[in-house]
Amino acid sequence: xxxxxxxxxxxxxxxxxxxxxxxxxxxxxxxxxxxxxxxxxxxxxxxxxxxxxxxxxxxxxxxxxxxxxxxxxxxxxxxxxxxxxxxxxxxxxxxxxxxxxxxxxxxxxxxxxxxxxxxxxxxxxxxxxxxxxxxxxxxxxxxxxxxxxxxxxxxxxxxxxxxxxxxxxxxxxxxxxxxxxxxxxxxxxxxxxxxxxxxxxxxxxxxxxxxxxxxxxxxxxxxxxxxxxxxxxxxxxxxxxxxxxxxxxxxxxxxxxxxxxxxxxxxxxxxxxxxxxxxxxxxxxxxxxxxxxxxxxxxxxxxxxxxxxxxxxxxxx
Length: 317
Hints:
Elements: H1 21-48, H2 52-58, H3 68-87, H4 101-106, H5 118-131, H6 143-151, H7 159-174, H8 179-191, H9 194-212, H10 221-249, H11 257-280, H12 284-316
């Protein structure tokens, strides 16, 4: 039995379990406005005062701000939704400096699908073979020849390299007469790994920050995670603004907007430096050195993750 409106142990309100539609709607709008209020309040400090929001969480003053994880999930979801909807339609992956997907796709501009002469089909297969050569340039025509050479002991690749070679043969066979599908499938599969790439890079960035500031015993790893989350949220927002500016610059009389997007990008770099200086409270010289090392680390991590995710995209095809 409960005495009063609220439970004395957990504090839950004493309500009838079967709530009406009106109650559901009221709670929905209460939660929504509560979320919006905290979100925009947090966003204001995040943009205007670099490092301040992370410092507030470190000091335990969190009631007025949106939880960093919820903020990251919401912002990244909006960012990638808009990014995939408006800014990646014409982007194609370049495999290497010599062969690009554009080259493969352009070949089919004068040929209707399914109507290839023998010469065109051979050339098409060569184009696909060149495009899939990102898996490695191997002197084998097909899987049958490769297996024969392996049996004869003339092909000595290891297990993982052998998987690459088999995948190369599989792609050549699957897309031998359909270059556009090959291009579109790989591009679409790869670009949708971007959320995973950034999500995986976040804890690695925080780990490097922990190493850079290892003498700061007052900062736990979670403090660096929160700082990294706020940086990512700001970068997502700045990136969206930059893309919209670049989109506007395509209009003939708004070409000058390209210059603004360049300065905006430089502003993001300064923001990261400023956030580090405020949050970690070190001198300008020490902060700049660690800032430079952080950028190098981030670039290295992103490159490694891009390669891994590209390989993952290929094996999903």
